[in-house]
């Protein structure tokens, strides 16, 4: 990269906020990847911004010099969105990490994009308020990354996903213009909904610099149930039956045995029900103990009717935290188990979960490969880890695309989509035409060109 560009960047963000060249090679390493196994690319320069105005100046410079800009939150993405596959500038929001205001009258919180999502939870909960979206990575990922990916999480069953809570956004367009969309507004239909367009746009349309999120009162009562099954399919059948009974738990998570055994090995301690073929982790919440107790009794009975071995009820926060710790560690544990692996994030209508899980196991058997399924069963959103174990490299290279494509075709045949919350990014872009027709892809390409005609913002993402 031209030394003049680096000098200009130093003038914009300050010397200490630019990483460049051999002496910064070690400090730049974390910016070469996100959490996708095996995907890396070197940025030419990393800049850590502290304001929207700095982002705007960087865009104006990047336009003049035609340098690619890749936005980055915390780098915990699972589709390669923050990986600078065309080099250029990595624009990190990690220093824009202030919670600007908790507005108790309007039930809104205003934050910068680099705030870690779990910090928002803790700050608003201290005021008796509740921000429901809770990606399993919540203590590592940023709210800006959640917005760019349209992140979900276990509580989506009852409370929806990130996009259902965003009322206002400031964003910097690739032209360098700063726009303010929405505000502390529960309703707003003034023109096209650019907020919803930017959510899930994977850092390809604009850089988000300020966010206003809607809050709810914190529910007073929470109960978690851990339910083991000796039959993988019976656990899946229970999920659709609970929903059919018109009970909406906060979360229904599915964990296959191998995922829990991997967590045991990572934590070096035994988890309950280690012989179960699969477990459900079900959370219920509400404002009165009577209502929550009533629901969990019905849910517990349904689980037992479907052959559950037991129903462990966790009412105190220590036991609940232990159960959720195991769930949140699954991805890390599987990475320890098989450092080379491939992860899918398919989503189907909730009632189609049983045929999806059955079909995935058939595909795995046919290809003689180990798959571990877990995830947000209550949303029909399943994460499938395909583990390399000791499969030779050559076979692995051809096996992954074959297995992925079969899983996608199965998912689409059940009315589903190829990603529920992790995004298309780099890893799924070649499969976009399987999921969307050409006319839709063309409209999306044209929208992108309106925002970014010179294609400097996060090139190489989403589109094949
Ligand atoms: C262990 C683990 C568990 C996970 N669990 C979940 C889960 O339950 N639910 C879920 O939805 N996801 C989950 N994820 C995926 C991931 O954490 C989310 O996608 C998260 O939103 C990424 O945030 P980040 O700050 O790390 O983003 P990054 O990886 O830094 O970036 C992700 C994308 O956002 C763009 N971006 C970042 N900041 C901005 C900004 N300010 N403006 C514009 N674009 C921006 C980047 O360019 C990139 O395309 C999990 C990941 C891991 C590793």
Report on the structure:
By secondary structure, the chain is an alpha+beta fold. Helix content is 36%, strand content 21%. The protein has 16 helices and 18 strands. Strands 15-12-14-13-17-18-16 form a 7-stranded antiparallel β-sheet, sandwiched between helices. Strands 5-6-10-8-9 form a 5-stranded antiparallel β-sheet. A hairpin with a 5-residue loop joins strand 8 (166-172) and strand 9. Helix 1 runs antiparallel to helix 3 (52-65). It is globular. The protein starts with a helix and ends in a 13-residue tail after the last helix. The relative contact order is 0.12. The model has no long low-confidence stretch (mean pLDDT 95). Bound molecules: flavin-adenine dinucleotide (FAD).
Topology:
Blueprint: H1 3-13, E1 18-20, H2 25-28, E2 45-48, H3 52-65, E3 69-72, E4 89-92, E5 99-103, E6 108-111, H4 117-125, E7 129-130, H5 143-149, H6 156-159, E8 166-172, E9 178-182, H7 194-198, E10 207-214, E11 216-217, E12 221-229, H8 232-244, E13 251-256, H9 257-267, E14 278-286, H10 289-305, E15 312-314, H11 317-328, H12 330-337, E16 341-347, H13 353-366, E17 370-376, E18 381-387, H14 393-413, H15 432-435, H16 438-451
Helix pairs in contact: 1-3, 8-13, 9-12, 13-14
The structure holds flavin-adenine dinucleotide.
Bound molecules: flavin-adenine dinucleotide
Classify the helix fraction into a percent range: 25-40%
Kindly, what is the distance between the CA atoms of the first and last residues, rounded to a whole number of angstroms? 27 Å
Unreliable segments of 5+ consecutive residues: none
Class per helix and strand makeup: alpha+beta
In what range is the share of β-strand residues?
Answer: 15-25%
The average pLDDT is: 95
Main β sheet profile: 7 strands, antiparallel
How many strand segments? 18
Q: What's the gyration radius in Å?
A: 22 Å
Order of strands across the biggest sheet?
Answer: 15-12-14-13-17-18-16
Global morphology: globular
Q: With helices defined by DSSP (H or I, 4 residues minimum), what is the helix count?
A: 16
């Amino acid at each position: 990269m031209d030394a003049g560009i680096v000098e200009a960047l130093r003038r914009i963000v300050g010397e200490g906020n630019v990483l460049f060249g051999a002496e910064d090679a070690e400090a730049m390493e974390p910016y070469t990847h996100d959490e996708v196994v095996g995907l890396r690319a070197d940025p030419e320069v990393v800049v850590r911004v502290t304001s929207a105005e700095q982002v705007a100046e960087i865009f104006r410079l990047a336009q003049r010099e035609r340098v690619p800009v890749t936005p980055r939150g915390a780098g915990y993405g699972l589709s390669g969105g923050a990986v600078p596959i065309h080099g250029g500038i990595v624009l990190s929001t990690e220093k824009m990490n202030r919670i600007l205001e908790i507005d108790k009258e309007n039930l809104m919180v205003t934050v910068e994009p680099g705030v870690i999502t779990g910090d928002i939870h803790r700050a608003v909960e201290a005021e008796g308020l509740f921000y429901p979206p809770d990606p399993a990575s919540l203590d590592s990922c940023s709210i800006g990354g959640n917005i760019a990916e349209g992140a979900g999480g276990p509580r989506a069953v009852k409370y929806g996903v990130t996009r259902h809570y965003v009322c206002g956004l400031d964003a910097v367009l690739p032209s360098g213009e700063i726009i303010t969309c929405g505000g502390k507004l529960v309703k707003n239909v003034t023109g096209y909904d650019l907020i919803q367009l930017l959510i899930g746009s994977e850092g390809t349309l604009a850089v988000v610099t300020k966010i206003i999120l809607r809050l709810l009162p914190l529910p007073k009562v929470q109960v978690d149930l851990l339910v083991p099954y000796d039959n993988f399919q019976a656990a899946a059948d229970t999920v659709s039956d609970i929903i059919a009974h018109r009970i909406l738990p906060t979360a229904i998570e599915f964990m296959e045995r191998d995922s829990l055994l991997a967590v045991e090995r990572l934590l070096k301690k035994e988890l309950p029900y280690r012989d179960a073929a699969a477990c459900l982790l079900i959370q219920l919440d509400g404002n009165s103990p009577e209502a929550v107790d009533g629901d969990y009794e019905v849910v517990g009975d349904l689980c037992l009717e479907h052959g559950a071995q037991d129903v462990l009820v966790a009412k105190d926060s220590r036991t609940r935290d232990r159960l959720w710790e195991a769930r949140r560690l699954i991805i890390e544990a599987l990475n320890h188990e098989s450092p080379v692996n491939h992860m899918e994030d398919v989503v189907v209508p909730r009632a189609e979960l049983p045929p999806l899980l059955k079909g995935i196991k058939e595909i795995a058997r046919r290809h003689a490969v180990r798959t571990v399924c877990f995830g947000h069963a209550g949303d029909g959103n399943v994460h499938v880890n395909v583990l390399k174990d000791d499969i030779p490299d050559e076979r692995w290279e051809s096996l992954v695309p074959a297995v992925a494509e079969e899983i996608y075709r199965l998912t689409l045949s059940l009315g589903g989509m190829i990603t529920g919350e992790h995004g298309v990014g780099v890893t799924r872009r070649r499969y976009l035409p399987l999921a969307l027709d050409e006319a839709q892809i063309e409209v999306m390409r044209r929208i992108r060109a309106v925002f970014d005609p010179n294609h400097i913002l996060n090139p190489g993402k989403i589109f094949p």
